[in-house]
Amino acid sequence: MKWLKKLDDHFEESVTFILFAILIIVVFLQVIFRYIFQFSLHWGEETARYTFIVLVYFSAIVAVKRSKHLRTEGFVEMLPYKVKKWVKILSDVIWLAFTLLMVRLSFISTMTVLASGQQSPVLGFTMGYVYGVIPICFTLMSFRIIQKIIQKIKNQKNDEDTSSAETLI
To answer: Domain range spanning residue 92?
Structure first.
């Protein structure tokens, strides 16, 4: 079970690190080959493009996991403390509904592209695999949002337990 905890703690960051390293290496090689050897690697641009796409989706999961995603909190911060906590949970539930909708729609899109047999122009691999990253990442994002909702509900219960214990004292 220790490996499961490590996987939960570091999976997205590890994938993001690897993808970023690949992206840097491929772009660096492209620059070197283009300006020093005067020719371009035919596979470099496409590899960099698809690596960047996957990197963006995995980075979004890391942002969810670390609660670093963009959001507007001006109105929420003006609310009373107890209401604010429930509004944040509600916003996460709405966000979860959106990500689950995206899982469904992107899965349909992926299946359509897979059925069409479309291939990438240079590398020649099935484009359905590139599209397949989207439902996978939205599924992982949904999982992380569920974890955040559970964590917020537990914190809400702990706050209520603490406040009721304080009123007894």
So the answer is: 71-164
- End of a domain among 70, 103, 130? 70
Cα–Cα distance measured from residue 24 to residue 32, given in angstroms and rounded to the nearest whole number: 12
Instruction: Report how far residue 3's alpha carbon sits from residue 87's, in angstroms, rounded to the nearest whole number.
Output: 35
CB 120 within 8 A of CB 46: yes
Q: Where do runs of H (alpha helix) occur along 66-80? A: 74-77
pTM score of the predicted model: 0.85
Q: Give 49: exposed, middle or buried? Use CB within 10 Å, 0-12, 13-18, 19+.
A: middle
For tokens 């899982």, the residue is 103
Q: Is the pLDDT at 160 greater than 90, yes or no?
A: no
